[in-house]
Amino acid sequence: xxxxxxxxxxxxxxxxxxxxxxxxxxxxxxxxxxxxxxxxxxxxxxxxxxxxxxxxxxxxxxxxxxxxxxxxxxxxxxxxxxxxxxxxxxxxxxxxxxxxxxxxxxxxxxxxx
Amino acid sequence: xxxxxxxxxxxxxxxxxxxxxxxxxxxxxxxxxxxxxxxxxxxxxxxxxxxxxxxxxxxxxxxxxxxxxxxxxxxxxxxxxxxxxxxxxxxxxxxxxxxxxxxxxxxxxx
Lengths: 113, 110
Known about the structure:
The complex is a heterodimer of chains A (about 110) and B (about 110).
Chain A: E1 4-6, E2 10-13, E3 19-25, E4 31-38, E5 42-49, E6 56-57, E7 64-70, E8 73-78, E9 87-94, E10 103-104, E11 108-112
Parallel strand pairs in A: 2-11
Antiparallel strand pairs in A: 1-3, 3-8, 4-5, 4-9, 5-6, 7-8, 9-10, 9-11
Chain B: E1 9-13, E2 18-23, E3 31-38, E4 45-50, E5 53-56, E6 61-64, E7 70-75, E8 84-92, E9 104-109
Parallel strand pairs in B: 1-9
Antiparallel strand pairs in B: 2-7, 3-4, 3-8, 5-6, 6-7, 8-9
C-alpha cells in the first residue's frame, strides 16, 4: 500500500511564525498536492506539484509557498502564520493524471493563536 | 473541469440502501466519474470510478445514465461505519488535479 505520511498530526503555532508542514510518500508518485479543509467548504487545493522542483498554484495559494526538492517529499510553508490559516491540512499524492489514484495522508490540524 | 453538484447532507438508518446523486451537466467526452469517501479525522480514500452504465465493487455501485449528466453512488445496506463525507469528482484521467467540492455528509443512524 502507498503511504503518505504527514510529519505532525497536531500543531499549535503563534501568529507571525514561519510554519513548515512536511509530507512524504513512499511510492514513486509524480504528483503531490496540498489541500486545506474547513467545515462546509470541502477540500480546497493550495498548491500541487507534478515533478521535482515544479509547482503550480491551486485555488487558494495566498499566504503559502511550497518546496519539492525530492520526488518523495513535498513541503508546505506558511511564511507568516495568521489565525485564518487555522485549518486541517491534507497532503496527497497520485500517479500522473489518475483520478482514482489519489492517496491522502491523515492530515495535520494546525491551530494558529 | 466539469462542475459537480451534490446534496450537502443526507440521513439514513442502518440496513437501508443509500443513493447519493451527483450532477455534472458539462461532463466532457473523456471525463470519468470518481467517488471518494472521507471518515472523520482521515484523508479521503477512493471508492469507485466509472465512465458509463454501471460499475460495482465490494463497497458500492455506481450508476451512470446514457447522457452521463449525472451519476448515482449506491451504498447497499449501510451501517454506522458508513457515516462519512462522499465526494464526486469529474475529470479525464490525464488531468493534473481534480476539484473536491463540499461533498455529501452522510449520517447513518441506529
